[in-house]
Amino acid sequence: MTWSSVETIKENIHTEEFWVNMGPQHPSTHGVLYLEVKLSGETVVDLITHIGYLHRGIEKIAENRTYTQFIPFTDRLDYIAAMGNNLGYVLAVEKLMKMEVSDRAKYIRVIIAELQRVASHLVGITTFAQDLGAFATPLFYGFREREKIVELFDDICGNRLTYNYMRIGGLQFDLPKGADEKIKNIIKYMRPKIDDLESLFSSNAIFTARTKGVGALSKEKAVNYSVTGPNLRASGVKWDLRRDEPYLCYDKFDFDIPTGVNGDSWDRYKVRIEEMRQSLRIVEQAIGGLPEGDPTIKVGRIIKPEAGESYMRTEAPRGELGFYIVSDGSAYPYRMKIRSPSFSNLAVLSELAKGIKVADVVCVLGSLDIVMGDIDR
Amino acid sequence: MSADALDRQIAIPKESLLETARRLASEGFDNLHCITAVDKNESIELIYILYSINKHACVTLKTQLALDDLAIESLANIWKSADWLEREVYDLFGVKFLNHPNLKRILNPDDWDVHPLRKDFSRPDLIKKPKY
What we know:
The complex is a heterodimer of chains A (377) and B (132). Chain A is an alpha+beta fold and 377 residues long.
Protein backbone atom coordinates (compact mmCIF):
# COMPACT_ATOMS: atom_id res chain seq x y z
CA MET A 1 0.00 0.00 0.00
CA THR A 2 1.39 3.34 -0.94
CA TRP A 3 1.66 6.21 1.47
CA SER A 4 -0.94 8.29 -0.35
CA SER A 5 -3.60 5.57 -0.11
CA VAL A 6 -3.12 5.34 3.69
CA GLU A 7 -3.69 9.08 3.82
CA THR A 8 -6.90 8.70 1.80
CA ILE A 9 -8.14 5.99 4.15
CA LYS A 10 -7.35 8.16 7.15
CA GLU A 11 -9.30 10.99 5.63
CA ASN A 12 -12.24 8.72 5.04
CA ILE A 13 -12.28 7.25 8.54
CA HIS A 14 -14.73 9.02 10.73
CA THR A 15 -16.38 8.31 14.05
CA GLU A 16 -20.08 8.42 14.59
CA GLU A 17 -22.56 8.01 17.36
CA PHE A 18 -24.48 4.78 17.43
CA TRP A 19 -27.35 3.16 19.30
CA VAL A 20 -26.84 0.13 21.51
CA ASN A 21 -29.60 -1.93 23.06
CA MET A 22 -29.33 -2.87 26.72
CA GLY A 23 -31.97 -5.38 27.58
CA PRO A 24 -34.81 -6.35 27.77
CA GLN A 25 -32.85 -9.40 28.88
CA HIS A 26 -29.78 -8.09 30.62
CA PRO A 27 -28.38 -9.29 33.93
CA SER A 28 -28.06 -5.83 35.43
CA THR A 29 -31.54 -4.55 34.71
CA HIS A 30 -33.24 -6.09 37.76
CA GLY A 31 -36.18 -7.42 35.83
CA VAL A 32 -37.22 -6.75 32.28
CA LEU A 33 -36.04 -3.30 31.40
CA TYR A 34 -34.97 -2.14 27.97
CA LEU A 35 -32.59 0.77 27.59
CA GLU A 36 -31.66 2.27 24.24
CA VAL A 37 -28.31 3.92 24.68
CA LYS A 38 -26.78 6.31 22.17
CA LEU A 39 -23.03 6.16 22.45
CA SER A 40 -20.16 8.25 21.27
CA GLY A 41 -17.27 5.90 21.89
CA GLU A 42 -18.00 4.80 25.43
CA THR A 43 -19.77 7.96 26.51
CA VAL A 44 -23.53 8.03 26.71
CA VAL A 45 -25.06 10.80 24.62
CA ASP A 46 -28.69 9.86 25.02
CA LEU A 47 -30.67 7.20 26.79
CA ILE A 48 -34.24 6.11 26.21
CA THR A 49 -35.95 3.93 28.80
CA HIS A 50 -38.60 1.47 27.66
CA ILE A 51 -40.74 -0.07 30.36
CA GLY A 52 -43.92 -2.10 30.40
CA TYR A 53 -42.58 -5.60 29.91
CA LEU A 54 -44.01 -6.66 33.28
CA HIS A 55 -47.28 -4.77 32.91
CA ARG A 56 -50.03 -7.00 34.24
CA GLY A 57 -52.77 -4.42 34.45
CA ILE A 58 -53.02 -4.63 38.22
CA GLU A 59 -54.97 -1.36 38.37
CA LYS A 60 -57.60 -2.83 36.05
CA ILE A 61 -57.62 -6.09 37.98
CA ALA A 62 -58.31 -4.06 41.14
CA GLU A 63 -61.60 -2.86 39.67
CA ASN A 64 -62.73 -6.46 39.38
CA ARG A 65 -61.70 -7.68 42.83
CA THR A 66 -63.14 -7.03 46.26
CA TYR A 67 -61.05 -4.98 48.64
CA THR A 68 -59.80 -8.04 50.53
CA GLN A 69 -59.17 -10.02 47.36
CA PHE A 70 -56.81 -7.34 46.14
CA ILE A 71 -54.31 -7.68 49.01
CA PRO A 72 -52.32 -10.55 47.41
CA PHE A 73 -51.97 -8.50 44.23
CA THR A 74 -50.11 -5.82 46.13
CA ASP A 75 -47.48 -8.44 47.00
CA ARG A 76 -46.71 -8.68 43.30
CA LEU A 77 -45.85 -5.00 42.90
CA ASP A 78 -42.57 -4.58 44.70
CA TYR A 79 -41.90 -8.23 45.38
CA ILE A 80 -38.63 -7.53 47.19
CA ALA A 81 -40.57 -5.61 49.83
CA ALA A 82 -44.05 -7.09 49.71
CA MET A 83 -44.95 -6.18 53.28
CA GLY A 84 -44.49 -2.51 52.47
CA ASN A 85 -47.05 -2.77 49.68
CA ASN A 86 -49.47 -4.72 51.86
CA LEU A 87 -49.20 -1.97 54.42
CA GLY A 88 -49.65 0.91 51.98
CA TYR A 89 -52.77 -0.66 50.53
CA VAL A 90 -54.52 -1.54 53.78
CA LEU A 91 -53.76 1.89 55.20
CA ALA A 92 -55.37 3.51 52.16
CA VAL A 93 -58.51 1.40 52.53
CA GLU A 94 -58.62 2.07 56.26
CA LYS A 95 -58.34 5.77 55.57
CA LEU A 96 -61.20 5.47 53.08
CA MET A 97 -63.30 3.74 55.74
CA LYS A 98 -62.06 6.01 58.55
CA MET A 99 -61.14 2.92 60.50
CA GLU A 100 -58.78 2.72 63.47
CA VAL A 101 -56.79 -0.41 64.17
CA SER A 102 -55.70 -1.69 67.56
CA ASP A 103 -52.43 -0.47 69.07
CA ARG A 104 -50.92 -3.93 68.95
CA ALA A 105 -51.67 -4.19 65.24
CA LYS A 106 -49.99 -0.82 64.69
CA TYR A 107 -46.86 -1.88 66.55
CA ILE A 108 -46.62 -5.21 64.77
CA ARG A 109 -47.09 -3.44 61.44
CA VAL A 110 -44.23 -1.08 62.25
CA ILE A 111 -41.97 -3.98 63.27
CA ILE A 112 -42.80 -5.92 60.12
CA ALA A 113 -42.42 -2.90 57.84
CA GLU A 114 -39.04 -1.97 59.30
CA LEU A 115 -37.69 -5.53 59.15
CA GLN A 116 -38.88 -5.62 55.56
CA ARG A 117 -36.94 -2.42 54.90
CA VAL A 118 -33.77 -4.07 56.23
CA ALA A 119 -34.35 -7.16 54.08
CA SER A 120 -35.04 -5.03 51.03
CA HIS A 121 -31.98 -2.82 51.46
CA LEU A 122 -29.80 -5.91 51.95
CA VAL A 123 -30.92 -7.14 48.54
CA GLY A 124 -30.63 -3.66 47.06
CA ILE A 125 -27.08 -3.04 48.21
CA THR A 126 -25.70 -6.47 47.45
CA THR A 127 -27.22 -6.72 43.98
CA PHE A 128 -25.82 -3.25 43.36
CA ALA A 129 -22.36 -4.55 44.25
CA GLN A 130 -22.96 -7.52 42.00
CA ASP A 131 -23.75 -5.13 39.13
CA LEU A 132 -20.38 -3.50 39.72
CA GLY A 133 -18.64 -6.83 39.24
CA ALA A 134 -18.38 -8.15 42.81
CA PHE A 135 -19.60 -11.45 41.56
CA ALA A 136 -21.72 -13.48 43.99
CA THR A 137 -19.79 -12.97 47.26
CA PRO A 138 -21.62 -9.94 48.69
CA LEU A 139 -24.87 -11.27 47.31
CA PHE A 140 -24.45 -14.44 49.34
CA TYR A 141 -23.73 -12.41 52.47
CA GLY A 142 -26.75 -10.22 51.88
CA PHE A 143 -29.04 -13.16 51.26
CA ARG A 144 -27.73 -15.00 54.31
CA GLU A 145 -28.67 -12.06 56.54
CA ARG A 146 -31.97 -11.56 54.75
CA GLU A 147 -32.79 -15.21 55.30
CA LYS A 148 -33.21 -14.56 59.04
CA ILE A 149 -35.93 -12.01 58.37
CA VAL A 150 -37.57 -14.13 55.70
CA GLU A 151 -37.65 -17.08 58.10
CA LEU A 152 -39.29 -14.90 60.73
CA PHE A 153 -41.94 -13.80 58.22
CA ASP A 154 -42.43 -17.44 57.31
CA ASP A 155 -43.11 -18.17 60.99
CA ILE A 156 -45.51 -15.27 61.25
CA CYS A 157 -47.58 -15.69 58.11
CA GLY A 158 -46.45 -18.83 56.32
CA ASN A 159 -44.94 -17.18 53.26
CA ARG A 160 -41.45 -16.21 52.29
CA LEU A 161 -41.87 -13.73 49.46
CA THR A 162 -45.49 -12.79 48.85
CA TYR A 163 -46.86 -12.49 52.34
CA ASN A 164 -50.51 -11.43 52.09
CA TYR A 165 -50.30 -10.73 55.83
CA MET A 166 -51.81 -7.31 56.43
CA ARG A 167 -55.57 -7.13 56.55
CA ILE A 168 -57.99 -4.24 56.31
CA GLY A 169 -58.52 -3.43 59.98
CA GLY A 170 -55.63 -5.42 61.39
CA LEU A 171 -53.49 -8.43 60.65
CA GLN A 172 -54.10 -11.97 59.53
CA PHE A 173 -52.54 -13.48 62.66
CA ASP A 174 -51.05 -12.31 65.91
CA LEU A 175 -47.32 -12.93 66.35
CA PRO A 176 -46.68 -16.61 67.10
CA LYS A 177 -45.28 -17.69 70.46
CA GLY A 178 -41.64 -16.79 70.88
CA ALA A 179 -41.62 -14.35 67.97
CA ASP A 180 -40.56 -11.40 70.12
CA GLU A 181 -37.50 -13.37 71.28
CA LYS A 182 -36.72 -14.16 67.67
CA ILE A 183 -37.04 -10.52 66.67
CA LYS A 184 -34.72 -9.47 69.48
CA ASN A 185 -32.22 -12.09 68.32
CA ILE A 186 -32.45 -10.80 64.76
CA ILE A 187 -31.62 -7.28 65.96
CA LYS A 188 -28.67 -8.62 67.93
CA TYR A 189 -27.49 -10.68 64.95
CA MET A 190 -28.07 -8.01 62.32
CA ARG A 191 -26.19 -5.07 63.84
CA PRO A 192 -22.64 -6.47 63.53
CA LYS A 193 -23.52 -7.95 60.15
CA ILE A 194 -24.46 -4.53 58.81
CA ASP A 195 -21.14 -3.19 60.08
CA ASP A 196 -19.42 -6.09 58.33
CA LEU A 197 -21.20 -5.36 55.08
CA GLU A 198 -20.37 -1.70 55.32
CA SER A 199 -16.69 -2.33 55.90
CA LEU A 200 -16.69 -4.88 53.09
CA PHE A 201 -17.90 -2.28 50.60
CA SER A 202 -16.57 0.98 51.99
CA SER A 203 -13.01 -0.29 52.25
CA ASN A 204 -13.10 -1.74 48.77
CA ALA A 205 -11.10 0.42 46.40
CA ILE A 206 -12.97 -0.73 43.31
CA PHE A 207 -16.38 -0.16 44.85
CA THR A 208 -15.36 3.30 46.02
CA ALA A 209 -13.87 4.27 42.68
CA ARG A 210 -16.85 3.03 40.76
CA THR A 211 -19.48 4.81 42.87
CA LYS A 212 -18.03 8.08 44.22
CA GLY A 213 -19.06 10.99 42.05
CA VAL A 214 -20.94 8.77 39.61
CA GLY A 215 -24.48 9.76 38.69
CA ALA A 216 -24.81 12.76 40.99
CA LEU A 217 -28.39 13.95 41.35
CA SER A 218 -28.91 17.47 42.62
CA LYS A 219 -31.49 18.37 45.27
CA GLU A 220 -33.61 20.44 42.90
CA LYS A 221 -33.62 17.81 40.17
CA ALA A 222 -34.50 15.04 42.61
CA VAL A 223 -37.53 16.97 43.84
CA ASN A 224 -38.51 18.08 40.34
CA TYR A 225 -38.48 14.49 39.11
CA SER A 226 -40.42 13.44 42.21
CA VAL A 227 -37.66 11.04 43.20
CA THR A 228 -38.43 9.70 46.68
CA GLY A 229 -37.09 7.45 49.38
CA PRO A 230 -33.38 6.78 49.98
CA ASN A 231 -32.56 8.25 46.56
CA LEU A 232 -34.07 11.60 47.55
CA ARG A 233 -32.39 11.61 50.94
CA ALA A 234 -29.05 10.78 49.31
CA SER A 235 -29.39 14.07 47.43
CA GLY A 236 -29.50 15.90 50.72
CA VAL A 237 -33.24 16.40 51.21
CA LYS A 238 -34.17 15.50 54.76
CA TRP A 239 -37.61 14.16 53.94
CA ASP A 240 -39.11 11.01 55.33
CA LEU A 241 -42.83 10.37 55.61
CA ARG A 242 -42.29 8.43 58.81
CA ARG A 243 -41.28 11.70 60.42
CA ASP A 244 -42.93 14.34 58.23
CA GLU A 245 -46.35 12.76 57.82
CA PRO A 246 -46.34 10.13 60.54
CA TYR A 247 -48.70 7.22 60.08
CA LEU A 248 -49.23 4.18 62.33
CA CYS A 249 -47.25 5.02 65.48
CA TYR A 250 -43.97 6.24 64.01
CA ASP A 251 -44.24 9.48 65.98
CA LYS A 252 -43.61 7.49 69.17
CA PHE A 253 -40.22 6.26 68.10
CA ASP A 254 -36.88 7.91 68.08
CA PHE A 255 -34.86 7.60 64.89
CA ASP A 256 -32.61 9.64 62.65
CA ILE A 257 -33.04 10.35 58.99
CA PRO A 258 -29.73 9.78 57.21
CA THR A 259 -29.00 12.07 54.30
CA GLY A 260 -26.26 12.28 51.71
CA VAL A 261 -24.37 15.29 50.41
CA ASN A 262 -23.62 14.82 46.73
CA GLY A 263 -26.47 12.56 45.66
CA ASP A 264 -24.11 10.22 43.82
CA SER A 265 -24.21 6.43 43.76
CA TRP A 266 -21.97 6.29 46.82
CA ASP A 267 -24.38 8.43 48.85
CA ARG A 268 -27.31 6.30 47.78
CA TYR A 269 -25.48 3.23 49.05
CA LYS A 270 -24.45 4.96 52.31
CA VAL A 271 -27.98 6.16 53.05
CA ARG A 272 -29.31 2.63 52.67
CA ILE A 273 -26.72 1.22 55.06
CA GLU A 274 -27.56 3.86 57.67
CA GLU A 275 -31.31 3.37 57.16
CA MET A 276 -30.97 -0.29 58.05
CA ARG A 277 -29.44 0.71 61.38
CA GLN A 278 -32.24 3.20 62.02
CA SER A 279 -34.85 0.57 61.12
CA LEU A 280 -33.35 -1.78 63.68
CA ARG A 281 -33.56 1.04 66.25
CA ILE A 282 -37.27 1.42 65.52
CA VAL A 283 -37.84 -2.33 65.73
CA GLU A 284 -36.03 -2.44 69.06
CA GLN A 285 -38.21 0.31 70.52
CA ALA A 286 -41.39 -1.18 69.09
CA ILE A 287 -40.73 -4.68 70.38
CA GLY A 288 -39.88 -3.22 73.79
CA GLY A 289 -43.18 -1.37 74.01
CA LEU A 290 -45.39 -3.93 72.26
CA PRO A 291 -48.86 -3.52 73.77
CA GLU A 292 -51.19 -6.38 74.60
CA GLY A 293 -54.40 -6.82 72.70
CA ASP A 294 -55.85 -8.47 69.66
CA PRO A 295 -54.39 -7.40 66.31
CA THR A 296 -56.59 -9.64 64.17
CA ILE A 297 -59.41 -8.28 62.07
CA LYS A 298 -62.93 -7.44 63.09
CA VAL A 299 -64.48 -6.75 59.71
CA GLY A 300 -65.90 -9.30 57.31
CA ARG A 301 -64.37 -10.30 54.02
CA ILE A 302 -66.75 -8.28 51.90
CA ILE A 303 -66.52 -4.65 52.81
CA LYS A 304 -68.34 -1.78 51.18
CA PRO A 305 -66.75 1.56 51.99
CA GLU A 306 -68.92 4.64 51.57
CA ALA A 307 -68.62 6.41 48.25
CA GLY A 308 -65.61 8.67 48.36
CA GLU A 309 -61.90 8.78 47.73
CA SER A 310 -58.70 8.49 49.68
CA TYR A 311 -55.03 8.97 49.00
CA MET A 312 -52.49 7.43 51.31
CA ARG A 313 -48.77 7.50 50.83
CA THR A 314 -46.32 5.59 52.95
CA GLU A 315 -42.55 5.37 53.13
CA ALA A 316 -41.92 2.02 51.46
CA PRO A 317 -38.29 0.82 51.27
CA ARG A 318 -37.90 2.23 47.77
CA GLY A 319 -39.70 5.50 48.32
CA GLU A 320 -43.16 6.92 48.61
CA LEU A 321 -45.79 4.40 47.72
CA GLY A 322 -49.22 5.95 47.22
CA PHE A 323 -52.61 4.37 46.76
CA TYR A 324 -55.42 6.50 45.38
CA ILE A 325 -58.72 4.70 45.78
CA VAL A 326 -62.13 5.82 44.57
CA SER A 327 -65.12 3.98 45.97
CA ASP A 328 -68.66 4.05 44.58
CA GLY A 329 -70.10 2.30 47.62
CA SER A 330 -69.94 -1.19 46.12
CA ALA A 331 -67.77 -4.11 47.16
CA TYR A 332 -65.29 -3.28 44.40
CA PRO A 333 -63.02 -0.25 44.09
CA TYR A 334 -64.21 2.05 41.32
CA ARG A 335 -60.66 3.08 40.54
CA MET A 336 -57.32 2.34 42.10
CA LYS A 337 -54.16 4.18 41.18
CA ILE A 338 -50.88 2.91 42.48
CA ARG A 339 -48.23 5.60 42.65
CA SER A 340 -45.17 3.42 42.75
CA PRO A 341 -41.84 4.79 44.00
CA SER A 342 -39.64 3.02 41.46
CA PHE A 343 -41.62 4.50 38.55
CA SER A 344 -40.57 8.06 39.29
CA ASN A 345 -37.13 6.96 40.47
CA LEU A 346 -36.41 5.29 37.14
CA ALA A 347 -37.63 8.31 35.15
CA VAL A 348 -34.56 10.23 36.30
CA LEU A 349 -32.16 7.67 34.79
CA SER A 350 -32.04 9.21 31.31
CA GLU A 351 -31.10 12.53 32.92
CA LEU A 352 -28.36 10.99 35.07
CA ALA A 353 -26.93 8.86 32.28
CA LYS A 354 -26.07 11.68 29.89
CA GLY A 355 -22.34 12.23 29.71
CA ILE A 356 -21.23 9.24 31.75
CA LYS A 357 -19.61 6.03 30.52
CA VAL A 358 -21.81 3.14 29.47
CA ALA A 359 -20.48 0.92 32.28
CA ASP A 360 -21.55 3.57 34.76
CA VAL A 361 -25.15 3.41 33.53
CA VAL A 362 -25.22 -0.01 35.17
CA CYS A 363 -23.82 1.54 38.33
CA VAL A 364 -26.41 4.33 38.44
CA LEU A 365 -29.22 1.91 37.69
CA GLY A 366 -28.06 -0.40 40.46
CA SER A 367 -27.80 2.45 42.94
CA LEU A 368 -31.36 3.63 42.20
CA ASP A 369 -32.51 0.18 43.36
CA ILE A 370 -35.58 -0.29 41.19
CA VAL A 371 -37.95 -3.23 41.00
CA MET A 372 -39.66 -3.67 37.67
CA GLY A 373 -42.79 -5.26 39.12
CA ASP A 374 -43.33 -2.02 40.98
CA ILE A 375 -42.80 0.14 37.90
CA ASP A 376 -44.90 -1.76 35.39
CA ARG A 377 -47.69 -2.82 37.72
CA MET B 1 -53.59 11.47 61.10
CA SER B 2 -51.19 13.12 58.72
CA ALA B 3 -51.79 15.93 56.27
CA ASP B 4 -54.10 14.77 53.54
CA ALA B 5 -53.64 15.94 49.98
CA LEU B 6 -57.33 15.47 49.26
CA ASP B 7 -58.35 17.86 52.05
CA ARG B 8 -57.38 20.83 49.94
CA GLN B 9 -58.86 20.37 46.51
CA ILE B 10 -59.09 22.93 43.75
CA ALA B 11 -61.46 22.28 40.87
CA ILE B 12 -60.36 24.17 37.79
CA PRO B 13 -61.48 24.37 34.17
CA LYS B 14 -58.99 22.74 31.88
CA GLU B 15 -58.09 26.02 30.15
CA SER B 16 -56.61 27.47 33.33
CA LEU B 17 -54.54 24.42 34.29
CA LEU B 18 -51.23 25.71 32.98
CA GLU B 19 -51.72 29.11 34.60
CA THR B 20 -52.70 27.59 37.97
CA ALA B 21 -49.80 25.17 37.82
CA ARG B 22 -47.32 27.98 37.15
CA ARG B 23 -48.71 29.98 40.05
CA LEU B 24 -48.50 27.00 42.42
CA ALA B 25 -44.95 26.24 41.27
CA SER B 26 -43.94 29.82 42.04
CA GLU B 27 -45.60 29.51 45.45
CA GLY B 28 -43.23 26.68 46.29
CA PHE B 29 -45.03 23.52 45.20
CA ASP B 30 -41.90 21.86 43.91
CA ASN B 31 -43.07 18.26 43.78
CA LEU B 32 -45.70 17.00 41.34
CA HIS B 33 -46.21 13.74 43.14
CA CYS B 34 -48.89 11.97 41.16
CA ILE B 35 -51.09 12.44 38.11
CA THR B 36 -53.98 10.13 37.58
CA ALA B 37 -57.42 9.96 36.02
CA VAL B 38 -60.81 8.49 36.77
CA ASP B 39 -63.30 7.53 34.08
CA LYS B 40 -66.60 8.99 35.28
CA ASN B 41 -68.46 7.65 32.24
CA GLU B 42 -69.68 11.05 31.02
CA SER B 43 -66.29 12.69 31.50
CA ILE B 44 -62.73 11.90 32.51
CA GLU B 45 -61.47 13.49 35.67
CA LEU B 46 -57.79 14.33 35.92
CA ILE B 47 -56.19 14.49 39.36
CA TYR B 48 -52.88 16.21 40.09
CA ILE B 49 -51.43 15.74 43.56
CA LEU B 50 -48.83 18.35 44.46
CA TYR B 51 -46.58 18.70 47.48
CA SER B 52 -44.23 21.30 48.78
CA ILE B 53 -41.29 19.78 50.60
CA ASN B 54 -40.19 23.01 52.30
CA LYS B 55 -43.60 24.20 53.37
CA HIS B 56 -45.06 20.79 54.26
CA ALA B 57 -48.10 21.66 52.19
CA CYS B 58 -50.15 19.71 49.72
CA VAL B 59 -52.88 20.47 47.22
CA THR B 60 -54.92 18.50 44.71
CA LEU B 61 -56.00 19.89 41.37
CA LYS B 62 -58.97 18.35 39.65
CA THR B 63 -60.24 19.03 36.19
CA GLN B 64 -62.92 17.45 34.04
CA LEU B 65 -62.41 16.55 30.40
CA ALA B 66 -65.32 15.94 28.06
CA LEU B 67 -65.10 12.62 26.24
CA ASP B 68 -65.16 14.26 22.81
CA ASP B 69 -62.26 16.56 23.67
CA LEU B 70 -59.66 14.64 25.63
CA ALA B 71 -56.79 17.08 25.42
CA ILE B 72 -55.10 19.25 28.00
CA GLU B 73 -51.87 21.20 28.34
CA SER B 74 -48.87 19.23 29.54
CA LEU B 75 -47.08 20.23 32.74
CA ALA B 76 -43.81 18.55 31.78
CA ASN B 77 -42.14 21.92 31.29
CA ILE B 78 -42.75 22.86 34.93
CA TRP B 79 -42.22 19.52 36.68
CA LYS B 80 -40.10 16.84 35.01
CA SER B 81 -42.00 14.12 36.84
CA ALA B 82 -45.04 14.98 34.69
CA ASP B 83 -43.32 13.49 31.64
CA TRP B 84 -43.81 9.83 32.58
CA LEU B 85 -46.94 10.34 34.66
CA GLU B 86 -48.71 12.02 31.73
CA ARG B 87 -47.56 9.31 29.36
CA GLU B 88 -49.13 6.79 31.70
CA VAL B 89 -52.45 8.63 31.74
CA TYR B 90 -52.31 8.90 27.94
CA ASP B 91 -51.60 5.20 27.67
CA LEU B 92 -54.33 4.01 30.02
CA PHE B 93 -57.04 6.64 29.39
CA GLY B 94 -56.28 8.18 26.01
CA VAL B 95 -55.97 11.74 27.29
CA LYS B 96 -53.77 13.78 24.95
CA PHE B 97 -51.32 16.17 26.57
CA LEU B 98 -50.53 19.13 24.36
CA ASN B 99 -46.90 20.26 24.06
CA HIS B 100 -45.67 17.11 25.77
CA PRO B 101 -42.03 16.37 24.82
CA ASN B 102 -42.62 12.72 24.00
CA LEU B 103 -46.23 11.58 24.16
CA LYS B 104 -45.99 7.84 23.52
CA ARG B 105 -47.48 4.82 25.21
CA ILE B 106 -45.42 3.81 28.20
CA LEU B 107 -46.76 0.52 29.57
CA ASN B 108 -48.74 -0.98 26.71
CA PRO B 109 -47.59 -1.83 23.17
CA ASP B 110 -47.31 1.09 20.75
CA ASP B 111 -49.55 -0.51 18.15
CA TRP B 112 -52.54 -0.89 20.46
CA ASP B 113 -55.53 1.34 19.81
CA VAL B 114 -57.47 0.90 23.07
CA HIS B 115 -57.07 2.47 26.49
CA PRO B 116 -57.56 -0.26 29.07
CA LEU B 117 -58.55 1.72 32.15
CA ARG B 118 -61.54 3.28 30.41
CA LYS B 119 -64.76 1.81 31.72
CA ASP B 120 -65.93 0.86 28.21
CA PHE B 121 -62.86 -1.33 27.71
CA SER B 122 -63.72 -4.97 27.80
CA ARG B 123 -62.31 -8.23 26.64
CA PRO B 124 -64.00 -11.59 26.26
CA ASP B 125 -61.65 -13.11 28.86
CA LEU B 126 -62.36 -10.53 31.56
CA ILE B 127 -64.07 -12.43 34.38
CA LYS B 128 -67.45 -11.07 35.42
CA LYS B 129 -67.68 -9.74 38.94
CA PRO B 130 -69.83 -11.79 41.28
CA LYS B 131 -72.62 -9.80 42.98
CA TYR B 132 -72.10 -9.04 46.63
